[in-house]
Amino acid sequence: MRDTRESRLLLVLLIAIAFALITVDIRGGEDSPVDGARRAAASVFGPIENGVASAVDPVGNAIAAVRDSGERHDRMAELERENAALKAKLGSDDRNRSRLQQLDKMLKIAGQGQYGIKGAEVIAIGAAQGFSWTITIDVGANDGIRRDMTVLNGDGLVGRVTTVGPNISTVLLATDPDFTVGTRMEGSDELGFAAGQGDRPLRVELLNGKAQIKKGDRLVTFGSQADKPFVPGVPVGVVSRVDPSGGDLTRTLYVTPFVSFTKLDIVGVVVRTPEKDPRDTVLPAKPKPTPRPTVTVTVTPSAGAPADGEFQQQDQ
């Protein structure tokens, strides 16, 4: 159709008629006068619409499938994140259980020795080569920590506080070569001084060169004046080797510490000293000796062997 004045007028007229029919249809509702015409149009154009829809649906389904695939991928990623979080939580729970066990052991020692302690977490460890053997803990002056306080854990003596900040403190470990603590032997009360040797056993010099000491004997802290830097009765370690006396004024022992210094996590700073020396009560129970089976051998004489006092005569 050519774009003329008459064609434009015809287009405007058709649009006006269309709006008029729409208005009549809406106002008429179910009794609309154009309802019959709409049904006739539906019967004519319905099959065409279905054909077009059947042609278009595969494309729509493909688009929906791609969209759903993305949603499934997102869901799988979410599930993977949830599983990772769950595993992390389980791992954290295992660690928490381990820390609770450490705390229980430490509280048991504190109760037996009547030590008032402030619990702390190890947040850093010093280098073992060229530097002091130290750890950093997450309590400080704001928590009542002072220099020269004893530090222990659920196994025994860890060290002493050397530097105190507002919220953190440095602890010199018992393994440090500059560390020295007075010791007392379990049972015999023999006194000595233990010194750190890095990753080797503690070296203990007993004041009595003739003291009768054997492998497996145990030591505790002797305590310091005014209980600083050491309170008495804290388990130190077990004798692993004894040097021959040789007539010296002192006797040298080598002691394996109770504490595993490579696994420090939860520790306690003694902020209140015991009213009396706990002596050996804080030491763990000694392991029961394992019984060794005894083998009894009975010799039974053979049937052909001569009895006592009998002689067999041999043919000449």
Note down, in words, how this protein is organized.
It contains 2 helices and 12 strands. With 316 residues, it is of the alpha+beta class. Strands 1-2-5-4-3-12 form a 6-stranded antiparallel beta barrel. A hairpin with a 4-residue loop joins strand 4 and strand 5 (169-173). The longest helix is centred in the N-terminal third of the chain and has 79 residues, at 35-113. The N and C termini lie far apart (156 Å). Residues 42-50, 52-60 and 309-316 have low confidence and may be disordered.
End-to-end distance, in Å?
Answer: 156 Å
Please state the average pLDDT score.
78
| Order of helical and strand elements | HHEEEEEEEEEEEE
Backbone structural class: alpha+beta
Q: Low-confidence stretches at least 5 residues in length (pLDDT < 50)?
A: 42-50, 52-60, 309-316
Strand order of the largest sheet: 1-2-5-4-3-12
How are the SSEs ordered, and which strands pair?
Elements: H1 5-28, H2 35-113, E1 116-125, E2 134-137, E3 150-152, E4 157-164, E5 169-173, E6 180-185, E7 191-197, E8 200-206, E9 218-221, E10 235-242, E11 251-257, E12 266-272
